[in-house]
Amino acid sequence: METDLLPMIAAERRRTADLIDSLTPAQLDTPSLCGSWTVREVAGHLVSPLVGSPWALLPLVVRAGFRLHVANARLAQQVARRPAAELAAALREHAEHRFRPPVVGYFGQLTDLQVHGLDIRRPLGLPADLDPDRVRTSLDFLTGGRAVGFVDRRRVAGLRFEATDLGWASGAGPVVRGTGEAMLLTLTGRRVALPELEGDGVTVLAGRWPR
User: Fold this and answer.
1) Inter-residue contact 137 to 159 (CB < 8 Å)
2) Residue 182 half-sphere exposure, CB side, CA atoms within 13 Å?
3) What is the per-residue pLDDT across 55-83, written as a single tens digit (0 to 9) for each?
4) pTM of the prediction?
5) What is the pLDDT averaged over residues 104-108?
6) Interaxial angle between packed helices 105-124 and 132-142, expressed in degrees from 0 to 180 and rounded to the nearest 10
7) How far is residue 39's CA from residue 121's CA, in Å, rounded to a whole number?
């Protein structure tokens, strides 16, 4: 059942809270892997659905011309203005919150937490320390056809992805092989992990990336 993911989600929120608490102001202001967001703004994004009313998003949606992704980004930036200790405390306090995003559900929430954790850790040179079961769950989601907004299907079509440290694989065709961490980053459009991949599908995959 999808609700079986709730303990995994709660554990990831607590892990992210510990991470945020450990960072210096300079680290919090470091650019993340997620677009133009800083580490602090990524944290704000993860906290924002847990601490506000859905109605708080409505004025932002209107001002953003009903572009939901733009409104969500602005909300994340607003929440990120809070002290880092407050962001971490909110993740712990609401670790078991049943926020369920439309379409992607709890699978999307679990994956969002893990990928954004990497968005924070990678630029800071911090180890990923990922849980294998949670990574497998998210990789199944990312390759299962339901990961709307997470995966560019045209980029990954006709390729086989293999996580060498997890005994996990999905798809058929030229092989893209690497760690579960590299798979999470690559499938969700983070080009930074491409040099860590092996297999005859890597050239195909790299050629599909925007120049």
Assistant:
1) no
2) 18
3) 455 454 445 453 455 456 677 778 888 99
4) 0.91
5) 95
6) 120
7) 9
